[in-house]
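Problem statement: downstream parser choked on a complex file, so we are re-checking the raw output for the calcium ion run. The parser issue turned out to be on our end (a line-ending mismatch), but while we're here, posting the original submission so the record is complete.
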Amino acid sequence: MSAPVPSGTRHPMVLDTDTAADDCFAMLACLLHPAADLKAVTVVAGNVNFEQQLENALITIEQSGRGGEVPVYPGCRESLMRGWTSAENVHGDGKGGHSWPKPSQRPEREHAVQALLRLADEHAQELDLVCIGPLTNVAAALILDRELPQKVRELYVMGGSNNFRGNITPAAEYNFYADPEAARAVVHAGFNLTIVDWGLTLRQAVFSDAELERIAELGTSLSHFFGIVNAPTLEFDRTAGIPGSTHPDLLTALTLLEPSLVRRTSRYFVDVETSGEMTLGYSVFDWGVLGREPNASVVEEIDREGFVGTVMRLLGDERTGGASRERLGI
Ligand code: CA
């Protein structure tokens, strides 16, 4: 769990994302939350077509009222060894199938991995990194700079499933499955690592129909954006028997930005299967059986009401940009 942020302190941070649906909402949190100082968005191969992910990131920044303020860097366009694993069956185009106005902001020329290494040097021991897609960009950065874990203050990862089912296969959660070699490299690299997993998501980060209705009733431009972008995921989740829409990425971002939302974490030795016949990408969350030194803090319980309340406040603000961050007063 992150150390509490002193009042008035903002996190210099990078959001590494395979931008579709819930990634967009996590990005909104990093753009608008008063504790966040988002320096960059780095995009990694994942959920949907790579160019679409870049566009989804730019649309989200534009919709937040901060167009042109936060650079978007294109990162690795496929996994280290296994090409690209689509999740378009879950997320559609990741922007709700809607024709949003084309943002005037364009992606940067600098590669995401270079930008990440540069920002880690510029904000050594201060930069927080939130990863809500496959871990390819971070693994590539580690190949170039083995000291990266010492330069990053906190690494928050959405990935794996803590002694629970997977989602893309019975055994594996999507982010770890899509690049298991990268996930394995990152969990063993020595970061100050916190993990939000798929099991916690299904227990505590599903928005019910009643909560989604409350978000719609906010009537703001951001609640409108949320409703449209969330619709395909909600429809897919219903077919999977989940009573609402799932928000693992949004939860991961907010557990960093509001440590008071975290009620319980435990230390685990985490590892990732890279050779299983039916268990590729399976995440081992060992509570001590293997006798290995823990390498991650795993969030096990959150203040769910507080989580939903923060999301309502973020989406409920009619104004955007800097004014919004002040008015939220979280
Ligand atoms: Ca994601």
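For whoever reads this later: The chain is about 40% helix and 20% strand.
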